[in-house]
Amino acid sequence: QLHLVESGGGLVQSGGSLRLSCAAPGYILESYGIGWFRQAPGKELEGVSCIRISDVTEDYADSVKGRFTLSRDNAKNTVFLQMNSLKPEDTAVYYCAAAKYCSPYNAAYEFWGHGTQVTVSS
User: Which residues, including other chains, have CB under 8 Å from residue 39's CB and lie 6 or more apart?
Assistant: First the structure.
C-alpha cells in the first residue's frame, strides 16, 4: 500500500509562492505518475497537473498554467509542485495521488495523500 505524504502548505499573501512536496517513504515514486488535485471549500475536487513516469508534465487547470510547475527529484524520492503568483482563488486543500498513468480524473488514481492546506490571503 503506497502511502503518500504532502507537505509545504500554509498561509501566504496574494502574489506569494509556496512549494508543495509529495513523498512516499519506503516506495519508489518514479515508478508512478503523480498527480496533484485540489478542493476548495464548497467545490468539487479539481485536477491541477500530473507528472508522468517519463517526467513529462500534464496541466489540467487552465487557471494555474504559467504559475504552477511540477518537478520530480528521484534522488529525494519526492515530487514538487512549485506555486507562484498565488491568488486567493488558489485557496484549497491540495492532494497528491499516484497512478500508473496520468489523468485529469481522480478516479484514475489508486493512492492518495491526506492533503495539505493552502490559504492565500488578499
Answer: 45, 46, 92, 93, 95, 115
CA angle 73/1/37 to nearest 5° reads 55
CB 10 within 8 A of CB 120: no
Q: Retrieve residue 34's grid coordinates.
A: 503523480
Between 26 and 93, residue with greater pLDDT: 93
Can you say how many angstroms the Cα of residue 109 is from the centroid of all Cα atoms in its chain? 13
Q: Which three cell numbers stand for residue 90?
A: 488558489
Cα separation values, 46 from 8, 38, 93, 94, Å: 19, 5, 10, 9
CB 86 within 8 A of CB 12: yes
Query: How many angstroms separate the Cα of 7 from the Cα of each of 100, 103, 107, 108, 117?
Result: 22, 22, 23, 23, 9
Contact predicate 49/70, CB 8 Å: yes
* 9-66 tens-digit pLDDT: 999 999 999 999 999 988 889 899 999 999 999 999 999 999 999 999 999 999 999 9
Integer Rg of the chain from CA: 13
